[in-house]
Design a protein that fits this description.
Structural class: alpha/beta
Shape: globular
CATH topology of one domain: Rossmann fold
Mean pLDDT: 94
Bound molecules: pyridoxal-5'-phosphate
Largest sheet: 6 strands, mixed
Strand content: 15-25%
Number of strands: 15
Oligomer: single chain
Low-confidence stretches: none
CATH class of one domain: Alpha Beta
Radius of gyration: 21 Å
Helix content: 25-40%
Number of helices: 18
C-alpha cells in the first residue's frame, strides 16, 4: 500500500507524514491536515469484526493509517492501554440504540481521542529522545481528558489554560488534582482569551526550544481514534445500513464517523445534531454558510460553537473549500469564508441536520427517563432528539445515538429536570477530597510567557 501523507485544507502547505501532522497539529498555512487518501476495508474484513472486542477492532482500523510509522506490537500495546474501559451499547426500542462513550477516566468521550493521542505522542518523542510540552486551552472537557491521558508520562510536560470562572467545579478538579507533570493556569478571562495566549505562544520563535505541541481538537491524531467506535458499534449488529446521530460541536466526532464510512462502513445517514448553534443545518438546507457569533450558550456546553473547526475538513471531503481570512501575523480577520461550494447534493444525501433547543433537550431527558428508565445528559439528549426528528420522515433500519458524557457531570441539570441525583461513576468519586493546585494569571501575554518559561526550566 502507498504511504498515507497529509495535506492542508488550505492548499498552501507541503505534504507531511502522520508523525509531523501529529506534532504540528495545524498546518503552517493554518489549514487542517487531511489524509491524501483514505484506506478502504473490504466487506469481509468489516464482517470479521463481528463479536470482536473494542481493542482488537481499534487496532485493525488504526494500523491501516499507522502501519508505516509504528510497529504492530507497539501499536497494539498503546491501544490496549488506551481502551481499558467498557463501551456499552444500550438497546432502547426496536432498532434504536444508545452507545455510551462516557466510561473513560474523565467520563467524557474526549477520553477516546486524548488517550491514544497521548500514547502516540509519548511513543514518538521517546523514540527520538526529545522532550515535549503539551500546551492546551480548554473550555471544559478537553482539558480534563488531555491532562489525565498525559499524566505521569515521562519526558512530557502538560500546561493547561482554562477560563477561571468558565468551567464547572467537576471539570476544574479533573484538571487541577493530578499534579506531577500536569500544570494548570486559570486565566482571568474567557475561553477566547485562553486560546489567544496559546496561539501566540505557538507563533513565538523564542519558545521553539521547548517543543510546544498542541493537543486541540484540530489535530488529526485526535480524529483517528474517533473512527474506531463507529466500527465497534456496527460490529454488534453486523448487517444493514446504520444511521448514526452525533451530538456535534467542533464536528470532530462526526468527522470520525465520516472517515469510517469512507473506509467502507455501511452508513445510510449521519444525523448531525446540534444545539441552538444552527450554522450547519442552515448551511445544509440553504447552501449559505455563516458562523454564529457570538455562539449561543446552551446546557450542552461542549457544543456551544458557532463555527466548528472540523467543518473545513468535511467541506473539503465534498470538494469545497472553507477557510478563515487572516492577517500576516495569523490573526483571524473574517471567519468561515466559503471559497468553493462542496457538492451540496451529495451532502444532503449523506447528512440530515437538526438544531435542538435547550427546551427540547430537557424535554427529551424527561421523556427518555420516564419511558425507558434510562438517563441522558444534555449532549446525548440533543443527539437522541435529533434521531427522533429524523425518524418522523424516514425509516431507520439500525439507529445508533451517541451519548458523549456521563449524566453525573451535569448534576444540577439532571436534578432540575428530573428531581433525582445521577449516580456518580467511580472515575468521578473522591474528586472533591483531592488537593487542587492551580495558579491564577491575567490575560497579558508577557506574563504568561514568563510563567511558561519558568515552568519549563
Ligand atoms: C466535545 C464534546 C462534544 C462535541 O464533540 P465535537 O467532536 O466537538 O463535535 C459533545 N459532547 C461532549 C460531552 C463533548 O465533551
Amino acid at each position: 500500500m502507498p504511504k498515507i501523507l497529509y495535506r492542508s485544507t488550505n492548499r498552501n502547505s507541503g505534504l507531511v507524514d502522520f508523525k509531523d501532522a501529529l506534532f504540528k497539529g495545524q498546518a503552517p498555512d493554518y489549514g487542517l491536515y487531511m489524509p491524501t487518501f483514505i484506506p478502504r476495508l473490504t466487506g469481509k474484513e468489516i464482517e470479521s469484526f463481528n463479536g470482536k472486542g473494542y481493542s482488537e477492532i481499534a487496532f485493525y482500523v488504526a494500523k491501516e493509517f499507522l502501519q508505516d510509522c509504528i510497529g504492530g506490537r507497539d501499536l497494539r500495546l498503546l491501544i490496549n492501554q488506551a481502551y481499558n474501559f467498557r463501551v456499552p451499547i444500550e438497546k432502547i426500542e426496536n432498532n434504536l440504540h444508545v452507545m455510551r462513550l462516557d466510561r473513560g477516566p474523565t467520563a467524557s468521550f474526549k477520553d477516546f481521542a486524548a488517550r491514544l493521542m497521548a500514547g502516540l505522542m509519548h511513543h514518538f518523542s521517546k523514540k527520538e529522545g526529545r522532550k515535549l510540552t503539551v500546551l492546551v486551552s480548554t473550555s471544559g472537557d478537553t482539558g480534563g481528558a488531555v491532562a489525565d491521558a498525559f499524566s505521569g508520562l515521562d519526558n512530557v510536560n502538560v500546561i493547561i489554560l482554562f477560563p477561571f470562572r468558565g468551567v464547572s467545579p467537576v471539570q476544574r478538579m479533573q484538571m487541577t488534582t493530578l499534579g506531577k507533570n500536569v500544570r494548570t493556569l486559570a486565566v482571568k478571562g474567557d475561553f477566547d482569551d485562553c486560546q489567544a495566549l496559546v496561539k501566540q505562544a505557538f507563533n513565538d520563535r523564542e519558545l521553539e526550544e521547548f517543543g510546544l505541541t498542541s493537543a486541540n481538537s484540530i489535530n488529526f491524531g485526535r480524529l483517528l481514534p474517533q473512527v474506531f467506535y463507529y466500527f465497534y458499534a456496527y460490529s454488534k449488529f453486523g448487517r444493514g445500513n446504520a444511521v448514526f446521530s452525533v451530538p456535534s460541536g467542533n464536528f470532530g466526532n462526526l468527522m470520525g464517523g465520516v472517515i469510517a464510512r469512507e473506509m467502507g462502513l455501511p452508513v445510510e445517514k449521519f444525523v448531525v445534531s446540534v444545539n441552538e448553534n444552527y450554522e450547519f443545518p442552515r448551511f445544509l438546507s440553504s447552501g449559505i454558510y455563516k458562523p454564529i457569533e457570538p455562539s449561543k450558550k446552551c446546557s450542552s456546553n461542549s457544543m456551544n460553537i458557532g463555527h466548528p473547526s472540523n467543518l473545513a475538513r468535511l467541506i473539503d471531503l465534498y470538494g469545497g473549500w472553507l477557510y478563515d481570512k487572516r492577517s500576516g501575523s495569523g490573526k483571524i480577520i473574517k471567519k468561515g469564508i466559503l471559497k468553493q461550494k462542496p457538492d451540496m447534493k451529495m451532502m444532503r444525501k449523506d447528512f440530515a441536520s437538526f438544531s435542538i433547543t435547550d427546551k427540547d433537550a430537557s424535554e427529551t431527558i424527561k421523556k427518555f427517563y420516564s419511558k425507558y428508565k434510562s438517563l441522558l445528559e444534555p449532549h446525548g439528549a440533543v443527539a437522541w432528539c435529533g434521531l427522533e426528528k429524523y425518524q418522523k420522515n424516514s425509516k431507520i433500519g439500525l439507529g445508533i445515538s451517541l451519548e458523549t458524557a456521563n449524566p453525573a457531570k451535569f448534576p444540577d441539570e439532571i436534578r432540575n429536570i428530573l428531581g433525582i441525583q445521577p449516580k456518580i461513576p467511580k472515575s468521578l468519586k473522591g474528586l472533591g477530597k483531592k488537593q487542587e493546585k492551580f495558579e491564577v494569571i491575567g490575560t497579558d501575554y508577557k506574563d504568561f510567557k514568563c510563567r511558561l518559561m519558568e515552568l519549563n526550566s
